[in-house]
Each structure stands twice: as structure tokens, then as C-alpha cells.
Design brief:
The protein is α/β, with parallel strands linked by helices. It is 22% helix and 30% strand.
Length: 236
């Protein structure tokens, strides 16, 4: 389907949020799904082309628009996305993916996000707040420093406005940060999550090495595999 770039905004150092206007299309998706997006050529292409899948960052209650946030690394897709002006037409395919909120709202959740992995959890948290869903959520969010932490102010606002939500930040490369600076491992999780870890469902999203590392750490901490759901975000 056709869509137009409606707005572009830098939401952290090196992270661009792009909002697409769906031109009246009523698109249903669940928080956690992704869409394939194909950009028009501006004479900058590489072997990977101009079609990529990107996870939605807004709530499905925000009708008529899709928001995507991405780290601006060196690829033709991302260079093109940066230079395309507001009003440019793109192609958006139907939603895909099964990474989503568990149906059981009584079981507490631990979201573990690394870098751009926060996109999927922003969509989920907005949806939880808007629909008044009774999830209990702890978000562990790892970044290099506050400047590169996407949606930091909004997440801190969630602490004030969303019942049963707790935010734990760690900045692994900022010597001036006064909070946590450790990488997320089993000891980190045990220090911040109370009680039996198998009483929680863990949702992990981030770059492949981070997501795999957290999965391994949770396994070593005794978390059963059925209590861990992971999504890996490759660099492109």
C-alpha cells in the first residue's frame, strides 16, 4: 500500500523516528509486529536494496499512521531514509511477526531492551496505557549513554502515568552516569527482579549479540526456556 512520509524527528543521537501517513488505509496490527517498507530510489543503492522490515513504534490505537525508529547506520536504505523529504511516497506491506504481549495479563513481565530494541516495547507500553491493561511490567533498558537512549523522557513519564511499571536503566559506556553501568547478565537481573525468576515472562529485544547474550544469561540464571521470548534486530 502507498504511504507518505508525514514527519521525521531525531529521538536520540543517531536514531531517527519517521512517521508515515497511510492515506486513509485502516491497518490492523498488534504491538510487536513489523512492516516491510520499500523506499523510492534517490540514486543511492547497495546490494541490500531499499526494502527493509522495521518494527512499529506507535500503538495500534493511533489510526492512519505508522511510526518507525531506526539507528542511522551506513546503508543505502538508511541514507535514503534520511534524505527523503516529508511528503515522499513509500510502499508499506502488511504486518508480519509473532513477537507480542502474552495473553495472560496476570503474569508479570520483564522487558529487556538493548538500543533500538526499545521500539517494540514503546508500542506495547503505549497500548497498555491507552487500553488500561493490567500488565505488571519491569523494563530493563541498556544503552551506551543517555544521549543515544531513544524515548528516554517518554519512558520516565511512563513511570509516573502507568500503573505497575518500573524502569531500570543501565548506561554501559558513560563514566559520568550515576546509575547502573553493568551489562545485562544473570546477576544484573537477579539484583533488580524480585523473587523466583521463573515467575516472570521475559521479552528480549535488541541487536543479535545482545539478545543472544541475555538469553544465555537468563538460562544460566535458571530461567526456563518457555519463559523467554526474544526478538533480534540486525544492523542494515
Amino acid at each position: 500500500m502507498r504511504a507518505l512520509i508525514k514527519e521525521k524527528q531525531e529521538v536520540a543521537k543517531g536514531t531517527l523516528l519517521v512517521t508515515f501517513d497511510l492515506l486513509g488505509e485502516d491497518v490492523e496490527f498488534t504491538p510487536g509486529q513489523y512492516f516491510f517498507v520499500t523506499l523510492p530510489s534517490v540514486d543511492d543503492e547497495d546490494e541490500k536494496g531499499l526494502r527493509r522490515h522495521i518494527t512499529v513504534v506507535n500503538s495500534p490505537n493511533e489510526k492512519g499512521v505508522l511510526g518507525f525508529a531506526t539507528r542511522m547506520r551506513d546503508s543505502a536504505f538508511k541514507r535514503t531514509l534520511r534524505v527523503l523529504p516529508v511528503g515522499s511516497e513509500v510502499d508499506v506491506e502488511p504486518p508480519k511477526g509473532t513477537f507480542s504481549l502474552p495473553e495472560d495479563t496476570s503474569r508479570p513481565l520483564v522487558f529487556v531492551a538493548g538500543g533500538i530494541g526499545i521500539t517494540v516495547f514503546r508500542s506495547m507500553l503505549r497500548y497498555i496505557r491507552e487500553d488500561g491493561l493490567p500488565y505488571r511490567v519491569t523494563l530493563i533498558y541498556s544503552n551506551r549513554d543517555p544521549e543515544s537512549t531513544a524515548f528516554l523522557d517518554e519512558l520516565r513519564e511512563f513511570e509516573q502515568t502507568l500503573a505497575d511499571f518500573r524502569l531500570i536503566l543501565t548506561m554501559t559506556q558513560d563514566p559520568g552516569w550515576e546509575g547502573e553501568t553493568r551489562k545485562v547478565d544473570g546477576e544484573f537481573v537477579n539484583d533488580h527482579v524480585d523473587g523466583d525468576l521463573n515467575g516472570y515472562t521475559f521479552l528480549v529485544a535488541g541487536p543479535p549479540a545482545m539478545a543472544e547474550g541475555v538469553q544465555t544469561a537468563l538460562k544460566e540464571a535458571g530461567v526456563d526456556a518457555e519463559n523467554v521470548i526474544a526478538e533480534r534486530y540486525s544492523r542494515y
